[in-house]
Amino acid sequence: MKKLLAAGMLMLLSACSSTPDYDYDKSVNFSEYKTFAWFPNASLTKGTANYQISELMERRVQQAVNDELAAKGMQLVDAAQADVLINYHASVETKVDVDTFSSGYSARWDYWGIGYNVQTTTREYEVGTLVLDVIDKESNQLVWRGAKEGRLKKNQSPTEREVVIRESVAEILSHYPPQANQ
Predict the structure, then answer these.
(1) What is the dihedral of CA 48, 50, 55, 60, to 10 degrees?
(2) Which residues contact 35 (CB under 8 A, 6 or more apart)?
(3) Cα–Cα dist 24/62, whole Å
(4) Distances (CA, A) of 117 to 109, 113, 120
(5) Of the candidates 175, 150, 182, which has an alpha carbon nearest to the alpha carbon of residue 22?
(6) Residue 2 banded pLDDT, cuts 50, 70, 90
(7) Residue from 51, 45, 48 nearest 7 by CA
């Protein structure tokens, strides 16, 4: 049930989310890529078989990617005519924060006489990660990958979810295509 709930919250990242990470093949001339298509069953590729996102979230992610790439001058076409194929992966992971702090000195009636009051708190939270891949269609090789992770927020409206996804995709694709000095 927890994974199902997390699946509905994919990429509802909070404002304190991480900086996008990216990597690419330096031997590729990205200026040659003018058209793109989606990898068949993009969200169902290896690594995500046990993780499902809703169709609503899939459409939001794909539309955000389509819009960002179009703004960069790329055209969405049928896979047969595409220069590159776009794929994505999504995951949700539970993490734990542990904080230990001293609340000052206290008199203790034991061997040492004076000591620290120490408190430890733990908090579980979920982190969502979205990975976007750009695959050269001719060679079938990964040529660019961008990823972003952040804490998931619960109970967001559909509009809030769309805004967060659009912002996350825009941040990831802000590094595509890579510039010569990157």
Answers:
(1) -40
(2) 74, 75, 76, 77, 81, 82, 83, 84
(3) 21
(4) 13, 13, 10
(5) 175
(6) very low
(7) 51
Closest CA to 130 of 93, 79, 156: 93
Q: How high is the pLDDT of residue 182?
A: 54
- Is the CB of residue 165 less than 8 Å from the CB of residue 61? yes
More confident residue, 16 or 97: 97
Q: Are strands 35-38 and 141-151 parallel, antiparallel or unpaired?
A: unpaired
Amino acid at 81: Q
The two three-digit tokens of residue 60, written as one number: 């939001």
Amino acid at 177: P
Indicate if the alpha-carbon torsion angle 53, 55, 57, 59 is positive or negative.
positive
